[in-house]
Amino acid sequence: MVDRRRPAEEGTPIARRVMLGTLAAGVLGLATAPFLRSGWDRAVSAASANDPTGLTGLLPSTDGFRYFSVAGSVPEKTAADYRLEIGGLVDRPITYTLDELRAMPQTRVVGDVECTDGWRVPGTPFTGVSLAHLLDLAGVRPEGKAVRFTCFDGVYTESLTLGQARRSDVVIALDMQDKPLTHERGGPVRLYVAPMYFYKSAKWLSGISVTEQVVPGYWEEYGYDVDGWLDRAA
Ligand SMILES: Nc1nc2c(c(=O)[nH]1)N[C@H]1C(S)=C(S)[C@@H](COP(=O)(O)O)O[C@H]1N2
Ligand SMILES: [Mo]
Fold first, then answer.
1. Strand arrangement, sheet containing 83-88
2. What's the rounded mean pLDDT across residues 24-36?
3. Prediction pTM value
4. Closest C-alpha residue for ligand 1 atom 8
5. Which of the following CATH numbers is that of domain 83-222: 3.10.20.310, 3.40.50.2300, 3.90.420.10, 3.40.720.10?
6. How far, in Å, is the centroid of ligand 2 from the Cα of 15?
């Protein structure tokens, strides 16, 4: 089901700009006091986790990332209860545990992270299983032309054409910056599509389904480009 509410964090650009300006003043002060940073990060995480409006998506964290979630609260998944389901137009549907994904060959992709809102974290390493490898194991049927991603937040979805999904810089990431993905960053498993805007990189990934054609994802229902290339000339 597509949730047609317009989430506050990307829906009100003017209010957002004003609030960011206000917050920036406070953050600049903290930047010179490193011992305070972890306290700030904790406060931001706690506020984000409890905020049903999504407005705390506006709060910057000190590593350059901002927390985004179109869902008000997202359950945390551990290695014990995490599952990734692969199905749709494949010969061998399968469900993986986190340990099984960790035991597979790992690919490290270093790319820029860039949100359409303008914030950017250059040269960020993501490590995990190449999506092409998972698709090969499942055996894409001839009529399969695209891939649809679903998330255990119960709301967000994304999509890629099969050609995009098979690129070597698209990874089912378990680590970011060489550390296990935190819940805040979409762990234990998120998609990372290095050549595209970060909205393509679905957090809290729970399902990969091969489809006959591209099914527009959550933001794409609001007009975002299905082909979210960072280089607009591409
Ligand atoms: N499940 C889920 N994935 C998501 C989103 C979301 O709201 N829910 N937001 C997208 C957008 S617009 C961005 S910029 C990044 C933000 O990732 P971050 O919270 O780790 O910074 O996640 C993308 N993937
Ligand atoms: Mo974004």
1. 94-97, 83-88, 205-211, 146-151, 157-161
2. 40
3. 0.79
4. 69
5. 3.90.420.10
6. 17
